[in-house]
Amino acid sequence: MRKSTIYIALFLVFSISLSAQKTQKLCGEYIYHAPENVTLEQAKQTALERAKLQALADKFGTTVTQNNATVVKNENGMSDISYFALGGSEVKGEWLENAKEPEYKITYEQDMLVVKVKVCGKAREITNAGIDFTAKILKHGTEAKFESETFRDGDQVYLLFRSPADGYLAVYLIDESQTAYCLLPYMNAPSGNVRIKSGKEYIFFSEQNADKNEAPIVNEYVLTTNKTAEHNFLYVIFSPNEFTKANDVSTSPDKQGATNHVELPRELPLVDFQQWLAKNRTRDKDIKVEIKGLTITK
To answer: How far is CA 240 from CA 42, 87, 126, 203, in A?
Structure first.
């Protein structure tokens, strides 16, 4: 009789654990009135993210008020809107993947761009706080004080990273062509992940700041654009559990006989990257993704 009681108790604990991690289907809508300095692509991305956040907040709740969803900054005369004000642990749920392509309706009201979007997908409740790592995008220097979200064509970029726990890291850059570029692991890295030691501050994309053994494989990156302004997103993906980067490919030309050769990071289509990320987030409840917006201007 005692054994049966133990088995039942274990079964209930197991069932509760599975229930907390169960994915659910959600749909969300959002109407975004874009400021003058925001492009159509930026406005669509902002509307999409807020539609997801609204759906998550409605289903799972938030730890902050809805009024804190938008933060407007003004730096050196340039206005910038934080697109992910309710990201991470602020919403008690996370969006895993879209069920289909979002539906957009673009209109103009009194010369103002208005984007309405509807999106459906899979999500799950966040039942743990996750690892509170530090990730900063840097320009013109490798110290935390050089953190920036705005770059000019030709600026070099660095990433400062620190975690309170051991784990594994991957970093991808998403550009407006809907392509995901693998910045970490480096192109010639022997393994498909980057191992992180707790408490250690890393400066990635800098050969000078790399460990002696890693310096030969470091890739240093320069941000470029042929547009007046281009908005990209940096995905910083960390987990205490081992995972392997996406199945990306190299598209750089053969170095033999090449002149003015520029070696590009390994890449894959955005839709394939999203599927890879969704699978990892479904399997690993401890994985944490921080998305940072960065703007490149001529």
So the answer is: 32, 20, 16, 19
